[in-house]
Amino acid sequence: MLSRLSHPVATLKSSRRVRALRLLASVSPALAWTVGAFVVAEAVLPNLTLIAMGRATGRIPAAARDGLSSGAGHSLLVALAVAGVCYGFSLLRGPAEDALSSVVRARMVVTLQRRLVTAVSAPAGIAHLEDSETLDRLANVQGQLMNAAPADAPMTIASQLGGWLSGTMACVVLSTFRWWLGLAMFAAWIAVRRPLGQLVRTRVSSFRAAGEPLRRAWYLFALATRPNAAKEARVFGLGAWLAAEHRTHYVSGLTPTWHEMRRQGRRVATVAVGVFAVFALSAGTLGWTAYHHEIGLGTLAVMLTMLPSSMTVGTVSMTDFQLEMMLTAVPDLDALTDSLVPMADAVDAVDDTSAGTSAGTVDPAGMPRRDVVFENVAFRYPGGESDVFSDLNLTLRAGESTALVGVNGAGKTTLVTLLARLRDPSRGRILVDGLPLNDLHVRDWQKQVAVVYQDYTRYPLTAEENVTLNLLGGPVDDAALRQAAERAGATDLIDNLPNGWRTILSPQYEGGTDLSGGQWQRIALARALYAISRGATVLILDEPTAQLDVRAEAAFYDRFLEITQGVTSIVISHRFSTVRRANRIAVLDAGHITELGSHTELLAQAGTYANLFTTQAAAFTGGRKRA
Ligand SMILES: Nc1ncnc2c1ncn2[C@@H]1O[C@H](COP(=O)(O)OP(=O)(O)OP(=O)(O)O)[C@@H](O)[C@H]1O
Predict the structure, then answer these.
(1) Which residue's CA lies nearest to atom 4 of ligand 1?
(2) Which CATH fold topology does 371-618 show?
(3) Of 136, 213, 397, 508, whose CB count within 10 A is highest?
């Protein structure tokens, strides 16, 4: 018996509506109770107004006959007063709903965003951010995929529930006239609601399934409308192309939905004919009994208004459609949380060996002391058609700089993402001082790696925060900050900012400013150097001078040895004037390291490096090749 009872309870608990309401209750129990009170008002007030009006109508003949000062007249006045009060309260429903909706939305948006940020930042790597299912879920919870804001779900559910209860109450009132009439109306509305609800669900689920083309359509829309991309779209005259592509993806995503809806629409039309018959029978019964004086004017007036009022049991409107779209975000949010957050738990469980080797338990402080060894490493991107590395072997000596050289797409950036454990090798292993990298605590290892990526991030924060990334407060090491800026060639740049270190590096904020590409690159370099001064032991510079002017680039070369002194560094560059200063140079070609040695040694080998170096040098010396 208990298990039979627990089944519907469990089903109810797992329903998306209940989960959305529970989310609101977890945000603010008081707000959830207020929404509950709104549901009651929504269910009761319209019917109370109609009933009071009907009863007042029924008292008019007696009051007209006996006069307003008679007992019948007083009774009419009381009924009118009750109707007026109910009507007055029902007028307040609209503004109350608006105010409550905006509060619920604001609280829900903050909660949803916090849960998304927590989930997405949980894994140590970045592979999940390239998984199309995860991206669809992210877009959906943000309301971008379905163009419906999940934060509005609780209030929409409340309003829908209120309407449904109001219709049910009308059916109950109808049953006081003829028991079967209320029941018949209820059954008829439920009968029409089912296929209508199915129609809405089909449309929404195929809309959701069309995530890929719709995400593309949104992306194209963003390209056309966001300032950064719009610049390029204007210059290259992409407007018409973007509009056409946007339409193509949107239509291709939705065409299957439209076909299915047409089919289900025909079924709904059939059921609607049956409902109309029940409605006509009910109205006819009422008319017949009134004609034969079996009921008075008051009952007739009440019951006639209850007939259309019962309709809200079966009505399915645009709101239901939007609610269904909002609710698709509920399982998506849970799936993101369930799949990503445990990865953080595994990563953070330093003492928990059950977390597996990938979590890593060894404290990497001060490592590498001897070397980092790539041993028979292979790697292929998820969904990729070929290996980026098939059998890569490379030793990075601790405290030395190693330059990585190779043609575009050779895998240089990929190699450093493996070193930073943003991804794991498909085969083979990386050893740090002889220990598998996977055994080191991944978050602590990542803190030890200071990187200047090719596409470093431009944070809309102050210059100081951009360098220190000290967002949780705590003391900033001023001396280290100044030294990092000086080594990165950013001192003059900071001095010339309107508020110095306190200037926000984004024109989108008051008092903020923007920097040029080269100036940003110096800030990114200073960020990595500050991290080194705070204990990072591995420095990765991916094209550190790509955006620097000639003088800044020359200054960087002069400081290169000073910058990389004592740290294990990898520099990736197509500029051989940078590369040649590294202690050792590794040439990456077709998934292997094909040459390894100092600049002089590799020139002497007269292989790929020598060829690339002399070709580039020749371009600067007007064709005269030199060593
Ligand atoms: N996120 C990704 N998903 C799938 N393939 C990728 C991804 N990133 C890079 N690749 C592919 O992996 C290969 C190596 O790319 P990588 O960026 O490591 O090359 P690179 O040597 O740094 O090139 P460049 O000199 O142009 O910066 C390329 O063929 C590239 O197309």
Answers:
(1) 381
(2) Rossmann fold (3.40.50)
(3) 136
